[in-house]
Here is the input.
Amino acid sequence: MKGSEWHPGVILSCRAQLGYRPPDTDRRTDVLLLSPWLAPIVWSETYNSAILDAQFHQRNVRVGITIFGIKKYTVFVSTFIETAEKYFMVGHKVNYYVFTDRVSDIPMVDLAEGRRVMVLSVPAYRRWQDVSMRRMEMLRDYSRRRFMEEVDYLVCVDVDMRFSDEVGVEILSDLFGTLHPGLYGTSREGYTYERNPQSEAYIPADEGDFYYAGGYFGGNVEEVYKLTDFCHNAMMTDKAKNIEAVWHDESYLNKYFLYHKPTRILSPEYLWDDDLGTPDFLRRKRFLAVRKNHKEIRN
Ligand code: 5GW
Ligand code: MN
Here is the structure.
């Protein structure tokens, strides 16, 4: 085995090409960077976008981002896509999958090359809890039917949001979840897991790693299929017993992640609400909740 490919000249040219600087001097010490099962927790200043972009381009990775605009929530779609064009996976192949019951309300948005909007017609459930929870079933069904052939990774998010800084391939991994911004820094006792032992979403008091947000998860299509299939089946089992977990789909997602640990975890930089202020640990706000008039939009 000859080690000649590692002579200093090669390393120097890699550095020149990618602007690489060994990250040994300025690792962040103010936040947790690795979960107990060694999954990276993604924070700014802990990774090199140039290296990651090169890796993902080499693999010609295709990304699907899924949103639901059911009933009045179609109003959020244009801001979502316009800001995503500025900040989400810029330079990569992206399909926007817009699930809606109001196909004709989905606006045309100018897209960069390699990016497309696909509108998927789905039913509207009457109860808002069902609108939110049935996302799992629809994501599962479309994962099997379409996403498998069209993309490599899925990013599944709420629609009442706007991008305000870069979100790139650093988030992509086989299975990823996002730390809930409202419960970041809370200890286990404060996590709002489902505590009814009769529910499929039940998490005992002495278990649970993090509290994950229902509005931001993803992974490769196979893993998202397994996650959404589990969550939908668990919700149906509970429904048959007249049970609904306290935070709906989010509760079932937290149960899934307890026993199927994510391979990457997104920090609250990736899901924030300006009502929570700007704590010191938050060096970038990449994806922000859009203020909604609850009465007007939800009636
Ligand atoms: C309507 C009334 C109350 C709660 C949710 C809805 C609703 C949600 C709706 O009428 N239409 C719809 O498409 N949704 C989808 O569910 C949106 O994609 C939305 O982002 C997601 C979760 O509901 P949110 O965003 O209102 O929940 P929070 O926890 O962000 O306030
Ligand atoms: Mn939301």
